[in-house]
């Protein structure tokens, strides 16, 4: 059985370091995106998406590029209601 120090001291150390750097960059990008949302209008099925709760037409993608387990989600920029789609809605403009 190998000790963790032995494994990390070997050829796995550079791989682990690069992986951790990539994870940190991804988290930082996600945090920055959450702090500076870009409100957009979207189209799905040839029609402009409108919030079914408040009627607003500007949204933010949620999750990783809007993708979640339930499909693609966009969050209303006014009331935060989430609309889900099975295919990614197209941003307008």
What does this structure look like?
With 93 residues, the chain is of the alpha+beta class. It folds into two domains: 1-36; 38-93, no CATH class. Helix content is 32%, strand content 26%. It contains two helices and seven strands; from the N terminus they run H-H-E-E-E-E-E-E-E. The protein has helices at residues 4-9, 12-35; strands at 41-44, 47-48, 59-61, 67-68, 71-76, 82-85, 90-92. The strands form two sheets. Strands 3, 4, 5 and 6 form a four-stranded antiparallel sheet that branches. Strands 2-1-7 form a three-stranded antiparallel sheet, with no helix packed on it. A hairpin with a 2-residue loop joins strand 4 and strand 5 (71-76). The mean pLDDT is 78.
Low-confidence parts, pLDDT < 50 over ≥5 residues? Answer: none
Q: What is the count of structural domains? A: 2
Helix content: 25-40%
Output mean pLDDT.
78
Distance between the termini: 58 Å
Spatial extent as radius of gyration: 20 Å
What letter string, H or E per element, gives the SSE order? HHEEEEEEE
General shape: elongated
Major beta sheet summary: 4 strands, antiparallel
User: Beta-strand percentage?
Assistant: 25-35%
Total of helices: 2
Tell how many strands the DSSP assignment holds.
7
**Structural class, from secondary structure content?**
alpha+beta
